[in-house]
Specification:
Pfam families: ILV_EDD_C (PF24877), ILVD_EDD_N (PF00920). Keywords: Lyase. Belongs to the IlvD/Edd family. It comes from Geodia barretti. The structure is a single chain. The protein starts with 8 loop residues before the first helix and ends in a 5-residue tail after the last helix. It contains 18 helices and eight strands. It is 45% helix and 11% strand. The longest helix has 19 residues. The protein is of the alpha/beta class and 409 residues long.
């Protein structure tokens, strides 16, 4: 049966490596992943392995949003993890490379990697480039806001249509620090993807070269006996949380990192997010809480730029390992970084002294809740004339949540 697919005895004698390719036509995040998976195959062959590609599902949050289809979103994460595990386990693969680029298929891949615990590498499909509208960069967030502007009479129907047609110019995941870019950042910092994977845009030619290196990296892991749970330690998860809160990432990071940690048998709770968030400054001026997108960050060194700031401040475990066999500190220090840039602030003069996510507890959520405060910490809601003192006290209490991080409501 293997020879029927064109394999030779030499191919059969080599390690078998699965490539879970999440390519599909249901979202721009995944439409191009076949090209990246092909480059991964080349890298595996160059590393003396035999690649086997298969696919699975994706549900696009952005496209199903506002419909009953959103009920399928989180469910899809579990289906993706189960399907990758089923094929890789059932076909007795020696290694695994996952290629993904959407909100739920990325953590689904990571959950499967942690479950299987065979040599594995994650490859991100990359971020979309910003579009152009009236001489400025725009992205999907601008369209959401424009709908409200049109409803309020501040934008014409023709302007709204022009923006809609230009905000997403091609392949790749949503440009700002939404769930996909948040998770790609977390995965790179945890060490399960190669340095630079998180911030390379989808159309960057270097993305294919990186995919080849990922194929070669999984073969090195096989030779050296390195498994995902050797990398997915508690220190790795703490590094991921630190970078996510420092950049003001998506609240979904809490949901997904805890699910991945469970599969990796690492005890991770909301208290960890609360503790790290209290002690980590918010330093990224990135959408949706700021001005810039992942393509901008990529010009100045990518996630390594953020890592350098945090590492120098003593906020990261620099000795945590990566799939390329180097430590987090080594990967950060070997990356070309441009310090004079507008996207990432210094830890000495941050946008806020505490992180972009807050954990809350109280009668509405006794087990805890997470809110995104990135870009909003400096805002104070004051009681209007005639309002009760009680309302004013609540407003002041909210403004103080940036320092207490766990305000009870």
């Amino acid at each position: 049966m293997l020879m029927a697919m064109g394999l030779t005895y030499d191919d059969i004698a080599k390690p078998f490596v699965a490539i879970a390719n999440l390519a599909s036509d249901v979202t721009p995040c995944n439409v191009h992943l076949g090209r990246i998976a092909a480059a991964v195959k080349d890298g595996i062959r160059q590393g003396e392995g035999t690649p086997f590609e298969f696919g699975t599902i994706t549900v696009s949050d952005g496209i199903s949003m506002g419909t009953e289809g959103m009920k399928a979103s989180l469910v899809s994460r579990e289906v993706i993890a189960d399907s990758i595990e089923t094929v890789t386990f059932g076909e007795r693969m020696d290694g695994l490379v996952t290629v993904a680029g959407c909100d739920k298929n990325m953590p689904g891949c990571m959950m499967a990697i942690a479950r299987l615990n065979i040599p594995s590498v994650f490859v991100y499909g990359g971020s979309i480039m910003p579009g152009q509208f009236e001489g400025r960069d725009v992205n999907i967030q601008d369209v959401f806001e424009a709908v409200g502007a049109y409803a309020a009479g501040r934008m014409t129907r023709e302007q709204l249509t022009e923006l809609e047609c230009n905000a997403c110019p091609g392949e790749g995941s949503c440009a700002g620090l939404f769930t996909a870019n948040t998770m790609s950042t977390a995965i790179e910092v945890m060490g399960l993807s190669l340095p630079g994977d998180a911030s390379l845009t989808a159309i960057n030619p270097e993305k294919n070269n990186e995919a080849r290196r990922a194929g070669q990296a999984v073969m090195r892991m096989l030779e050296e006996g390195i498994r995902p749970r050797d990398i997915l330690t508690r220190q790795a998860f703490e590094n991921a949380i630190t970078v996510v809160v420092a950049m003001g990432g998506s609240t979904n990071a809490v949901l997904h990192l805890m699910a991945i940690a469970r599969e990796a048998e690492v005890d991770l709770t909301l208290d960890d997010f609360d503790r790290i968030g209290r002690n980590t400054p918010y330093i990224a001026d990135m959408k949706p809480g700021g001005r810039y997108v992942m393509a901008d960050l990529s010009r100045y060194g990518g996630v390594a730029l953020v890592g350098k700031r945090l590492l120098d401040a003593g906020l990261l475990h620099g000795d945590a390992m990566s799939v390329n066999g180097k430590t987090l500190a080594e990967n950060i220090n070997e990356t070309a970084i441009i310090d004079d840039q507008p996207v990432i602030y210094s830890t000495d003069a941050p946008r806020s002294p505490t992180g972009g996510l807050a954990i809350l507890r109280g009668n509405l959520a006794p087990d805890g809740a997470v809110i995104k405060v990135a870009g909003h910490q400096e805002r104070v809601t004051r009681g209007r004339p005639g309002c009760s003192n009680r309302r004013s006290r609540r407003s002041r209490r909210y403004s103080g949540a940036r320092s207490s991080r766990a305000t009870s409501w």
